[in-house]
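Quick log. Single chain, no ligands specified.
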Amino acid sequence: MAIPFFKEMRIGGYMMKQKLLGRKRYPLVLMLEPLFRCNLACVGCGKIDYPDAILNRRMSAQECWDAADECGAPMVAIPGGEPLIHKEIGEIVRGLVARNKFVSLCSIALLLEKKLDLFEPSTYLFFSVHLDGLKDHHDKAVSQKGVFDRAVSAIKAAKAKGFAVNV
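-> predicted structure:
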């Protein structure tokens, strides 16, 4: 998928401003992890080994917005765990989009179809669906059958509702 011209212009303008201000180093993407918890236990994932105290911690919507404001980067990537588990994820994303942040919401897509109503299509939001290859390989990698098919179904549903989706 090509990068939309609007996005190229906004990010290019941000970078030009940083250069004009004489900044050699500046943030471009904030990696915001409002939680580590996931609804899979993939063989190769190290996050499932974290203690429950870390896995159960959730950033509030306000903490997420404060982090984005403090960082100043034009893009916010929200990986996981699985961010769709977060009870405030819709509110978090709406607040970031309202701040004109380009949001990449990374997901394994098991909950995406069910949670699409929490989001509105926007030039500032795209879903990034994690797939480890085609069906057999992906389902083996995530240690659960049927995950690939559910992810593909969710991708189709999101695209049908007007969302941008990367894989």
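The chain is about 40% helix and 15% strand.
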